[in-house]
Specification:
With 301 residues, the protein is of the alpha/beta class. It has twelve helices and eight strands.
Length: 301
């Protein structure tokens, strides 16, 4: 499988009692597909998988598959501490018809590179689906190092990596030493650098509410090769990225951004709390300014 374009890690919209808001889920999926994103990711961090039961996660897979109707690929996250649980999620994803898996480092356990590889290979043997790896040391505390990546080279299913370390040296290493594993941008403020080093996809939570801006950035750099336009778009997007990352309110900001589009995203699940009024106003102003600035860039939209 080739990953090309913008892949949105879906939010899970909730009612005030934290039950699934089915209407808002329909609206979110239709909004994103209509906007032109190239794929949807279910059970990513942005979807709050870590706050859901196994039954809830599997039901979310089923609902999303039914809603997407094969219009774009559906990638399913298998995140869990235990390898056995990740395999169970992967098998459920295959059963509902997922097109690929997102396989991250098991959190909290602090595995070595060899152990991460054995974890991923066990999932691969169980389901035999294309895999986008997910390297996020900021949350997992460990990297998918060279030993890990070398071992994973034994299977062609490991065809992409969402790189979220923020380390330029890793970006260079992946592009030069592992060309068979396609780069996918997982660090939003480095999208320009990823595209310059050959990335063909971008997994970006902000595309839940601003798919147009993210698609414009992808098209400028990856499709048209116009990095002058790309730099202008990225410059307009950077203030939003700073707001999203500050204060540990990432998911809350994404959900409020979706609400701004007229979709009732609802609150994040506890222990997270919704944004306060000041945070909402700051986010709203940044989004409005970004949209106005990008709209003024020739050829952006």
């Amino acid at each position: 499988m080739q990953f090309e374009g913008i892949y949105t890690p879906l939010i899970t919209p909730y009612n005030d009692d934290f039950s699934l808001n089915e209407t808002a889920l329909v609206e979110t999926v239709e909004h994103l597909i209509g906007a032109g994103v190239q794929g949807l990711i279910v059970a990513g961090t942005t979807g709050e998988y870590y706050a859901q039961s196994m039954d809830e996660r599997v039901e979310m897979m089923r609902r999303c598959k039914d809603l997407i109707r094969d219009r774009v690929p559906m990638i399913v996250g298998t995140g869990a501490i235990r390898t056995e649980d990740s395999i169970a999620y992967a098998q459920a994803a295959k059963d509902v018809g997922a097109d690929a898996l997102l396989v991250a480092t098991p959190p909290y356990a602090y595995p070595t590179g060899r152990e991460i590889a054995l974890h991923a290979l066990a999932i691969d043997r169980a389901v035999n689906l294309p895999v986008m790896l997910y390297n996020y040391p900021g949350r997992m505390s460990v990297n998918m190092d060279a030993e890990c990546l070398d071992r994973l080279g034994r299977s062609p299913n490991f065809c992409a990596i969402k790189e979220s370390s923020g380390d330029p040296d890793r970006l260079h290493m992946l592009a030069r030493d592992y060309p068979h594993i396609a780069l996918s941008c997982g660090m939003d403020d480095q999208a320009l650098e990823f595209f310059a080093w050959g990335a063909r996809s971008w997994v970006c939570a902000g595309s839940n509410f601003a798919p147009e801006a993210h698609i414009a950035m992808y098209r400028a750099c990856a499709v048209d090769g116009d990095f002058t336009r790309g730099r202008a778009i990225m410059s307009a997007m950077l203030p939003l990225m700073r707001v999203l990352e500050q204060g540990g309110k990432f998911i809350q900001c994404i959900k409020h951004g979706v609400t701004m589009r007229g979709i009732a995203a609802g609150p994040p699940r506890k222990p997270l709390q919704p944004l306060n009024k000041d945070d909402k106003r700051a986010l709203e102003e940044v989004i409005r300014t970004m949209n106005t600035t990008i709209a003024a860039i020739p050829g952006a939209f």
